[in-house]
Amino acid sequence: MAVMAIILERRIARISLERLFGVVFGVVAGLFCAALVSLVIGQAGGAGSNELHFVQIVCLLLFAYVGAVTGASKGDLLNLSALGGLFGAESSNRAQQKILDTSVIIDGRIADIAETGFLDGAVVVPQFVLHELQMVADSPDSMKRNRGRRGLDILQRLQKMPHLKVQIVSEDFPQIPEVDMKLIELAKVHKCKVITNDFNLNKVAHVRGVDVLNINELANSLKPIVLPGELMRVFILKEGKEYNQGVAYLDDGTMVVVDNARRMISKTIDISVTSVLQTTAGKMIFGKFDDRAQNAAAAGAATASAATAMDRPGNAARRDQAVGEN
């Protein structure tokens, strides 16, 4: 009984409030059904029989167990916030909590977002995420070691923000080896969101019914909107994959593929946007470089410069003298 009590205590510590209420409601419903069945059996078989008492006890235990299992499996469907008071406040606080993934901590942009005030409330960092971050910081690879140390610095930066509360939770799921699946299970238990920039974790979390805040999707949504036909001024950095293509990048990292710009590498040119492609990795802009328009503009600028030079006082006098001689 002591071992069963310890196991039950650990299970209750990890169970959500909704599931706990589901277990209680299920047990109560099971006991009520067992009482009805026992009443029917007692009326049919008479009273005072030992076999009858045994059947009634078996029905009591069986219905209580079935009710507890059913309530535990369906307890997540309960909406405790509708009750108001303490339950409504706790559900609201849990909904405002956000779990940080290892990748988003190493990325570092989460600290900049928090400093602007778009991220507030409580931020949850599980102990297994800290352990993974420490393993990256202790890696023999210098690149991984620097990334892990940067992630630890980002955590310290988040903890120093007065409007943000960073909570380190020790809750773990030993039966699940993958860190991503542990994050999903923790988010399901606490009814909160996961902040990440991992593409695979984003897809798996959506399949498992967990809300995800993706930093990459936020960055893509903040990129400027470009319409076909607009003019842009870009710096051609390298050659494209297709024939006679050049590749440029905007300040936010958006790739710009320019046709007819291969010979304009390492030059700044004006292009006309032809199309915009939105992909899972980000946004791509396709444009076209019109060398004839560029040459015409350059010739016009040269003509204007020459006319301006002739309109100067000294040049005007020499021009008038030449006209008089003629």
Could you please describe the fold and organization of this structure?
With 326 residues, the protein is α/β, with parallel strands linked by helices. It has helices at 2-14, 17-45, 50-74, 85-96, 102-107, 109-115, 127-137, 142-159, 179-190, 199-207, 215-221, 291-310, 313-325, and strands spanning 98-100, 121-126, 164-169, 193-196, 212-214, 231-239, 245-249, 255-259, 268-279, 282-288. It contains 13 helices and ten strands. Mean pLDDT is 78; it is low at 84-92.
Short description:
The chain is of the alpha/beta class.
Can you count the beta strands?
A: 10
Residues in helix, %: 55-70%
Strand order of the largest sheet: 3-2-1-4-5
In sequence order, what are the helices and strands, one letter per element? Answer: HHHHEHHEHHEHEHEHEEEEEHH
Using the coordinates shown, work out and report the CATH topology of the largest domain.
Answer: Rossmann fold
Characterize the biggest β-sheet: 5 strands, parallel
Q: Point out poorly predicted stretches.
A: 84-92
* Rg on CA atoms, Å: 35 Å
CATH classification, class level of the largest domain: Alpha Beta
